[in-house]
Amino acid sequence: MGEYLLGIDIGTSACKVAVFDRDGEIIASETGKYNIYYPQPGYVEQNPEEWWETICNTIKLIICKSDIDKSEIVGVGVDGQSWSAIAIDKNGTVLANTPIWMDTRSDSICKRLNKEIGSDTIFNLAGNLLQASYTTAKIIWYKENMPEVFEKTYKILQSNSFIVYRLTGIISQDRSQGYGLHCFDMRKGTWDGAMCKSLGIPLGFLPDIYESHQVVGYITDEAAKQCGLAAGIPVVAGGLDAACGTLGAGVIHPNETQEQGGQAGGMSICLDEYTAVPELILSFHVVPDCWLLQGGTTGGGGVMRWFEKEFGCFERVEANKLGVSSFDLLSEIAEEVSPGSDGMIFLPYMSGERSPIWDVHAKGVFYGLDYGKTKGHFVRSVMEGVAFALKHNLDAAANAGVQVSELRAVGGSANSFLWTQIKADVTGKPIAVPSSDTATTLGAAILAGIGVGVYRDFEEAVRMTVKIKRRHKPDMELHELYKKQYKTYLELYQSLKDIMKGR
């Protein structure tokens, strides 16, 4: 009889579902895709019901294709993308598509609230600047632009808490996702009623807060029929995808750092003391009594997916013939290009930019084109531009006194030896790569394992499950070359930011 843990990851472009044994080995995994909607400039939405439908179908597929007896699954953990604003009524009906983390429609609301309440007042409580990407102003946007939704709203949920609700019928809010709302006290990990009133967010909209590894409820009979799991399996609160990926990378001690290469890019530095930096993002870790100082960029692995979709037709055809990945073929042509892409530089601001510049008007830019440039130059410059964005965030942390000695890379980008080496060379930091594709779902499964007693504590869980597969040592000569290009990268944005704003 096995003792398995199920991890569910609600990503931006797809969900991942994986079953792990006690040692962190994958027994079965599947991915299911869903839509992202762009109804008008600045609007980026998803339908939470499509998440649920896709997750149900993906779980059923895993059970059908594997030899797993669903009764052998002893716990479920769910992680999800940040900064959703899922409005549900008292019956649990989703009232509207949720703006996701790339959505910037509420920028003017943020500017107004920062002026009325005081940006310093908000930051001192929440540990984060009030920006359009977060959940806070999206709720106010409902109030001002969709009053029928606001009036019917019973609770506002995050991505993982929505799926936990669908599984258990229990409404919850895990502590790691609290950072999306600026009425969340980042020192105490509790809601602040006075700030709720100042912001105009009813305190009743906000669910009870749970620790990420705390069992919230059990899979209901109705959910079991829809998703194919056994009724009665414990489900924990789960957490932020970046935090679960950080746990799945084995980052649970102060100053250990995860480097994220999913749809978004960035990093998460584990801290045991409250350290808020205006340029960066601060959240609670899914590990109790720890925070994560994060850099979050809009340009991560999603940039390469965009490039492959729009310009990788040849590679897709060849990949089908050869039985390989089109991304591998793109990486091969990038590897033929000299480090520094012969002066070509990419600004990866594909949906505005989050930390550390916080500019909703920022645009992606290719600089340094001439007749000598090839497709390989474009691909390599994309990889280098994302690495520069990572360095920009690490520099912001260093300027605040938070030093990093090594990075642990997770996400699809970590599968690329070239891209990971570029990040090591650009940042000057060694990079260790655990199981890159499964770190986030593993983190969610670990939370479930701790919640149901499979693991004694986080130390034991990480010791048993996290295994480093390879390491990248920075080439310090190339690091010096990249330092010069990084300077140009920063100057490009400074020179173009007013143009980007339309001035």
Keywords:
503 residues; alpha+beta; seven-stranded mixed β-sheet; five-stranded mixed β-sheet; 16 helices; 24 strands
Describe this structure in words.
- With 503 residues, the protein is of the alpha+beta class.
- Helix content is 40%, strand content 19%.
- The chain contains 16 helices and 24 strands.
- The strands form 8 sheets. Strands 18-19-17-16-22-23-24 form a 7-stranded mixed sheet, with helices on both faces. Strands 3-2-1-5-15 form a 5-stranded mixed sheet, sandwiched between helices.
- The longest helix has 25 residues, at 375-399.
- It is globular.
Number of helices: 16
Which whole number gives the mean pLDDT? 96
Distance between the termini: 66 Å
Rg (CA only)? 22 Å
How many DSSP E strands? 24
Globally, the shape reads globular
- Helical residue percent band: 25-40%
List low-pLDDT spans: none
User: What is the beta-strand fraction?
Assistant: 15-25%
Strand order of the largest sheet: 18-19-17-16-22-23-24
Largest sheet: 7 strands, mixed
Q: What structural class do the secondary elements suggest?
A: alpha+beta
Please write out the topology.
Blueprint: E1 4-10, E2 14-20, E3 26-33, E4 45-46, H1 48-65, E5 73-80, E6 86-88, E7 98-99, H2 107-126, H3 136-145, H4 147-152, E8 155-157, H5 159-168, E9 173-174, E10 184-185, E11 190-191, H6 193-199, E12 209-210, E13 215-218, H7 221-227, E14 234-236, E15 239-240, H8 241-248, E16 257-261, E17 265-271, E18 281-284, E19 291-297, H9 301-311, H10 313-322, H11 326-335, E20 345-347, E21 365-367, H12 375-399, E22 407-410, H13 417-427, E23 431-433, H14 439-452, H15 458-465, E24 470-472, H16 476-500
Parallel strand pairs: 1-5, 5-15, 9-12, 16-22, 22-23
Antiparallel strand pairs: 1-2, 2-3, 4-7, 6-8, 10-11, 13-14, 16-17, 17-19, 18-19, 20-21, 23-24
Helix pairs in contact: 8-14, 9-10, 9-12, 10-11, 11-12, 12-13, 13-16, 14-15
